[in-house]
Specification:
By secondary structure, this protein is mainly beta. Helix content is 8%, strand content 43%. The protein has helices at 3-9, 207-217, 236-241, and strands spanning 14-19, 25-29, 35-39, 53-59, 62-67, 73-77, 90-97, 110-114, 121-125, 131-135, 141-145, 159-162, 167-178, 185-197, 251-259, 264-274, 277-289. A hairpin with a 5-residue loop joins strand 2 (25-29) and strand 3 (35-39). The two termini are 44 Å apart.
């Protein structure tokens, strides 16, 4: 998959952007509406809304990035220059309000160059094509002057784009019944559908998180927390067709299955894992045994 194909498949997905100059530090939709770089443990990214951006694919390798923390606010290679040493070499990156996706606004458009799995990329402005994202030593995210034809070789201009957590899915056994009679029987069982936490924190439902889960589980893209971490969702079509209920707070429900005579049956539920979150679906696989 090329970088263009990866970005196209990620259209609408929620991503985080890590500085490779300062691993463990992420682009921050700061409350000042200026781009910053701040630290966050990877295990906390699912809960850290300030690290999250919706990637809107425009064309080829060009995207714009919307802050989840501030809907309708997009990264802007701004005309302002920072008040720092040698500030004339830089532009400020700000979050600017726009009512629709700014597809034809060059201030909001950025080209992505580098590895197809987005594990090591440079991010270049389409407003000024000699300005590249810079994880500056001041902990600010700036646009630094650099040759437009070559992405920065130094770590200040290297970033990793990934999901806040690696989406995974698998089938888990939720019911089993052996029928030792000569006629079919119905077997009722309960299961949990929706989102729950596997850690000690309580799950706080939010529309932004529900949409994040729905989109990120429906994306078939090979990106992850590192170049070696591969996308492990194997049932993309099922997740795409799942209703919003699947990505809401978990609840107990029940159903029944017919067990043939003189046979046993095992019921496996499709479940997703997203960091400390578990997602139960209404999709099952049956396995008969003698």
């Amino acid at each position: 998959m090329s970088i263009n194909q990866t970005l196209k498949s990620l259209n609408g997905a929620v991503v985080v952007i890590q500085s490779l100059r300062n691993p463990g530090n992420y682009v921050d939709a700061h409350n000042s509406k200026e781009g910053r770089i701040n630290g966050c443990p990877r295990s906390n990214l699912v809960d850290a809304i300030w690290t999250k951006f919706i990637l809107h694919h425009i064309q080829n390798n060009i995207v714009c990035l919307e802050a989840v923390r501030y809907p309708d606010h997009y990264f802007d290679m701004n005309t302002d220059k920072p008040k720092i040493k040698n500030g004339d070499r830089y532009q400020e990156l700000k979050l600017t309000h726009f009512n629709v996706i700014p597809r034809d606004q060059d201030w909001a458009l950025f080209s992505i160059f580098g590895e197809a799995d987005l594990s090591n990329v440079g991010i270049r402005s389409e407003r000024w094509t000699d300005r590249w994202w810079d994880a500056h030593t001041s902990k600010r995210l700036l646009g630094a002057k650099h040759d437009r034809g070559n992405r920065p070789a130094d770590s200040w201009g290297k970033f990793e784009i990934s999901f806040p957590a690696l989406p995974e899915d698998r089938y888990e056994l939720v019911a089993s019944k052996k029928n030792e009679t000569s006629f079919a029987i119905d077997h009722s069982f309960s299961y949990e559908s929706g989102v729950s936490r596997t850690d000690s924190k309580g799950f706080e439902e939010s529309s932004s998180l529900s949409l994040e889960l729905q989109k990120n589980f429906g994306v078939a893209a090979n990106i992850g927390p590192s170049a070696s971490a591969k996308f492990t969702v194997t049932n993309t079509s099922v997740w795409k067709s799942s209703t919003s209920e699947t990505f809401s707070m978990a609840k107990k429900t029940g159903t029944s299955v017919t067990v043939p005579p003189d046979k046993g049956i095992k019921i496996y539920q499709l479940q997703g894992r997203y960091g400390s979150l578990n997602i139960g679906t209404h999709h099952f696989r049956k396995e008969e045994y003698e």
